[in-house]
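User: Predict the complex.
Assistant: Input components as received:
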Amino acid sequence: MTTLNSSSAGSIITGIRFSATLIIVCGVIYTGATTLVGEQLFSHQASGSIIEKDGKAIGSELIAQDFQAPNYFYARPSAAGYDPTGTGGSNLAPSNPELREQVRARSQSIQALEGVDANKIPPELLAASGAGLDPHISPQAAEFQAPRIANTRGLQLNQVKALIDEHTEGKQLGLFGQPRVNVLKLNIALDNASMKNENTED
Amino acid sequence: MFEIILIMAIAVALAYPLGRYMTGVFSGQAHFSDRLFNPIEKVIYRCIGINPGVSMTWKSYGVAFLLSNLVLGIIAFLILKFQHVLPMNPDGIGPLSWDLALHTAVSFLTNTNQQHYSGQAQLSYLSQGTLIVTLQFVTPAMGLAVCVAMLRGMVGGRDEKFAKDGQERDLGNYYVDVVRGLTRVFIPLAAVVALILASQGVPSTFKGAQNVETLDSQSEVTEQTIPVGPVASMVAIKQLGTNGGGWYGPNSSNPLENPTPVSNAVETIALVLIPMGVVFLAGGMVRRKKFGVMSFVVMAVFSVSFIGLTVYSELQPNAAFNELAAEGSNWEGKETRFGPELSALWGTLTTQTSNGSVNAMHDSFNPVGGLMTRSGMLINGIWGGIGSGFVNFVIYVWIAVFLSGLMIGRTPELFGKKVETREITLLGSLIVLPTIVLLGFTAITVALPALTGNSNPGFHAISQVFYEYTSAFANNGSGFEGLGDDTVWWNISCVIVLILGRYLPLIIPLAIAGMMAKKRTIPTSKASLSVESVTFGVTLVAVILILNFLSFLPAAVIGPIGEALQLASLGVEG
């Protein structure tokens, strides 16, 4: 065994070589290897879970879009304006009067749009999500919007509800997750259903 | 509720074998992992230019730790300042200002990952994917190394058997401990987690951002840019290494960083896995498994009660939604795929472990939830940061040993090593340090409104400021993110708090352990205080509570407690 002495701590040169070596091991080898293997194994997920329609990229499964047209389901409010590069939450505290004002405005416009009382609105539809890009709403929040969708699209209410059921994601591995509906996928399915209806009517 | 229990059960079930494995890695005995890792480590030692056989005293160990931090910090600052002229910058991102670069370098160097920039928008792939990832690996490994050295010192060092009383002891080799932690613990675990995350939808590519045209033509937002990159590899070590600095601004609430319930479960488990494992490692290192179990139970008591209170808090309605929506939980700042319960679980664990990543916005938590998250950071020893957390816990243990010794009229000692005036003076300085730093900086910042940059009024404004400094001192890194914190004042004052909060609470206990190591070992007798008993565990809980109540109760009253009372008194308002 080597004896203990004060010079065993190493020098500045040791520090530089230590830093450089670990940058190569962790920052280059680890990052490069895991990223490339991940990309090879899971190419769809690894590049942003992009959804294509007729060969055109129309969104990411994981990113909410802003739906204004009354014949679409809308997603949860976004403090980031649904911009994935400006992602963020409202960061307003429950005690902040500004939050109260925002929620009041949202509540009033939904009351007018859906023709319901405030106490029927699922709170998540008035609450900005954490990152402003939440792609999901709960099945209850989807059913809440179903009558309007059926009306504007000329579809049966049952038809819309069946689509919601079909697009409700359950527990992963039978263990993890609350029931949720991907708004973008549901709206794409709506468009397809409407198109089929028109075709059969022709 | 079921998922909370399931996630915690899996975490404990994995942490125990991990702790045993790490004990093997750091005990210095031959280990089954040697065959695979020895040849790799030999190359690394040669690149660094060290002799792995060299032993260090606590002083050399501490100097090596500080020296390597200084050099790594300077390199980090330079890369961040000059990222615009360095390679791997496909999105053409500019340099950081000097104060932001300094804050970012120190923040990641201290295993804090407090972010005053917004991830993907302000950092190049080189800065994020290479530099930040390296710091996220190396800094927890450094914390673990110092913790392991302290534990060796607590039982007299590696040469206890043949060293003379009063002789400086061998606490191991700093560089070897860091490298072994990296190659045998952090890198293999992170690689597994990174691939699981990639399978769930966390981007894993070196390509640039993807552009899409959105579905609804009536919306004003008809185009989206989906930022991607080598995200999965970074998120894995961000979670495992009690780092917390995410790729995207809002961290793991962003669906690209945490896309599914499974990714959320994996990231939550990764958050506590190594900190929990270190508790079992500690029992192994001091060759007293029951001490590990006692420590685990004390931490679990705190952890579970905090989780319970936070979950309860977030299942309550948000006061701002009163009469504007159906009755329900507090959904502001939370994601549908996690819901309030799993957001509260994460919020509690991330502040206890000094991780600081989030999957929901803590600023919008109900006041009790906000109180629990900051309490976790103030105690800073319930699981805690990797290495640093258990070191903090040992500070509480030494104080509890000293107090119990006084109460029963025996010489206070731990594992046969006396705790005397010199040690207690140093411990005392560590107790008052956070009080002075946190309350002092909060007072200055709140007194000068031009400095604060609050997004919220009233009691919550004080909470925002206090939370930011607490998060810096605890090397946590989470924030009440509404704060406008990219200013020279915030950057520089946080740099000071970060440095004080990282290095003093690691170096002083290392010194205490080094000084105690060379003392004569008192043989255990019936009269010795048993630190493995229930009585001692209860004393320890009381010590932790009392110290923190005395230090921070007034600050809590003008923060979350005041806010809760204010919301309650508003009652039903139109």
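Chain B has a mean pLDDT of 91.
Let me know if you want any component modeled separately.
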